[in-house]
TrEMBL record:
Matches recorded under Gene3D superfamilies: Alkaline Phosphatase, subunit A (3.40.720.10)
Signal sequence region: 1-32
The organism's taxonomic lineage, starting at the top: Bacteria, Pseudomonadati, Lentisphaerota, Lentisphaeria, Lentisphaerales
Keyword set includes Signal: yes
Keywords per UniProt: Signal
Organism: Lentisphaera araneosa HTCC2155
PROSITE patterns: TAT
Pfam families membership: DUF1501 (PF07394)
Protein name as it appears in the record: DUF1501 domain-containing protein
Highest taxon of source: Bacteria
């Protein structure tokens, strides 16, 4: 091996200031902060977005109706820590945290199938043509200042339904953590590759890639370069410790629930402490077309324990006011049971809630009719919901970003943020 290709670790890190994977860094194209972000408007620093995947029955959780005898009998409402607010009996721990929450009972989705509804949920846009819209997390990663050291500003945990960065490219994609217990994968060198060999290989790759980059100018190459550059820095960073939830006390796992969802919530809290802007995770299995009450309590208990523990833990650590906890679902379930004792998809009306993050706690927004079949006041579209989160972070909702075809897009698709839910309107 030629000595010129034998990079020491010091030389690698020094050279990475001006290049990555052999591709010279281009001049920064980041927008001026005032164009995309306004700190004075922001009420939160971080967002934890929890997707109740499959379709949470609103009439069995956060919008129980006296006229719905099945839901009243199975999911009878209980009192909460917020005056005048009652929720289903399957969520007793969350009932004690409702003074931190704003329940939205007037959500409405235009899509009734999981794939299409999840696309709209994540991006704020309906899926049309060949355009791949960015997740809300990608918008935040692009437009808000980075505050998490070497950790990317957008992280998805476990089986999150997050779709990706769409036309924005890999530079703003989420860092995936498949299993919260195992931490970040593929971040260490293989056993048979030491630092010296690793750097020599990088040097060889640099020399190969440099010529290609000179001949072919393309955004995908720039994105690849930046991603590789960030990965190398992360591999040598102490920030990796944040992914090791095994350092938490045993009592923490008992409080959150010692299974994947509870562990995901623990990791989400650790990432908030590190300054990560947007963390997405999911609680799956809510597609109850058959016998909804056979397993509803099991799923509800897991969700209830993890989210309630997360809210309480953030408050104890002084982080709840600067962290917006979002619990949302792609649609509700039909208020009327079907002939299989289950509930079908119901996008017309459903519920979600927000906690912390400058929210005026202990409130309900919007209303459905006496059966929970349709929204009668305060209708909230998915784009409005996403715009509410983006506005809380401090993003400029009018800032236009174009895709590769030159088409203009804004975060939340011109949705109207529910600023009235926040103390700082």
């Amino acid at each position: 091996m030629n000595k010129k290709t034998q990079f020491t670790r010091r030389k690698l890190l020094q050279s990475s200031l001006t290049s990555a994977a052999g591709l010279s860094l281009l001049p920064s194209t980041v927008q001026a902060e005032s164009e995309t972000f306004d700190q004075s408007k922001a009420t939160v620093k971080s967002v934890i977005y929890i997707h109740v995947d499959g379709g949470l029955s609103h009439v069995d959780s956060f919008d129980i109706k006296e006229a719905n005898k099945d839901a009243m009998r199975a999911s009878e409402p209980i009192k909460t820590s917020a005056d005048g607010i009652r929720i289903g009996r399957y969520f007793p721990k969350l009932a004690k945290q409702m003074h931190h929450c704003a329940i939205i009972n007037s959500m409405s989705n235009t899509q009734g199938a999981h794939k299409e509804a999840n696309y709209l949920l994540n991006t704020g846009y309906e899926q049309r043509g060949t355009t791949l819209h960015p997740d809300l997390g990608a918008w935040i990663a692009r437009m808000a200042p980075r505050t998490s050291g070497e950790i990317p500003p957008f992280v998805k945990i476990g089986r999150s339904s997050s779709l990706g960065s769409g036309f924005m490219g890999s530079k703003y994609a989420a860092l995936p953590v498949g299993n919260p217990q195992q931490g970040l994968k593929n971040i260490k060198l293989p056993r048979d590759v030491n630092q010296d060999l690793f750097h020599r290989r990088l040097g060889l790759m640099n020399s190969i890639n440099a010529g290609f980059a000179q001949k072919h100018k393309h955004k995908l190459i720039d994105d690849y370069k930046q991603s590789y550059y960030d990965a190398i820095k992360l591999m040598h960073s102490k920030d990796l410790e944040v992914f090791d939830i095994k350092k938490e006390k045993r009592s923490t796992f008992e409080t959150y629930g010692d299974e994947e969802f509870g562990q995901s919530c623990i990791l989400a809290r650790r990432l908030v402490e590190k300054g990560v802007r947007f963390i997405s995770l999911a609680h799956k299995g809510w597609d109850f077309h058959y016998g909804i009450y056979d397993e509803f309590d099991e799923y509800a208990n897991s969700l209830d324990q993890g989210v309630a523990a997360l809210i309480a833990d953030l408050e104890d650590r002084g982080l709840l006011e600067s962290t917006l906890v979002v619990v949302n679902t792609e649609f509700g379930r039909n208020p009327a049971l079907n002939d299989r004792a289950g509930r079908n998809h119901y996008p017309i009306a459903y519920s979600s809630f927000l906690a912390g993050g400058g929210i005026i706690g202990g409130q309900k927004y919007g209303k459905t009719d006496e059966l929970g079949e349709k929204v009668v006041s305060g209708k909230v579209r998915v784009s409005d919901f996403n715009a509410t989160i983006a506005n809380a972070v401090g993003l400029n909702l009018k800032h236009v970003v174009t895709n590769t075809d030159g088409r203009p897009f804004t975060v939340g698709d011109k949705g109207k943020p529910l600023t009235q839910l926040f103390k700082k309107a």
